[in-house]
Write a structure and sequence with these properties.
91 residues; mainly alpha; two-stranded antiparallel ribbon; 4 helices; rod-shaped; transmembrane helix; transmembrane
Length: 91
């Protein structure tokens, strides 16, 4: 038996196709846009509408934090499928 056969079978990872990565990317993009808009186009009229709160800035920062949590979750607990029992027998 050689080293390749005696090693534990490798798991297949979803990587970029993991739905958590896609969600993190989309929420992160929207969060960046909202944060920039909150920093750049903050007017007194907008603050009156929101009760003197910069809603774009805080929503953007919250979305960036949520995206970071999704990305961290995908990194720490990657999805994978264990090889089927018949996969080890195939050459």
């Amino acid at each position: 038996m050689n080293d390749e056969q005696s090693a534990a079978p490798a798991r297949h990872h979803a990587g970029a196709l993991d739905i958590r990565s896609v969600i993190a990317g989309l929420i992160g993009c929207y969060g960046i846009v909202l944060t920039v808009m909150g920093l750049v186009s903050d007017s007194a009229a907008d603050r009156v509408k929101t009760g003197d709160v910069n809603a774009n800035l805080w929503a953007g920062l919250g979305m960036i934090a949520a995206a970071a949590l999704f990305a961290l979750w995908a990194y720490l607990r990657p999805l994978g499928r264990a090889p089927a029992p018949g996969d080890a027998d195939r050459d």
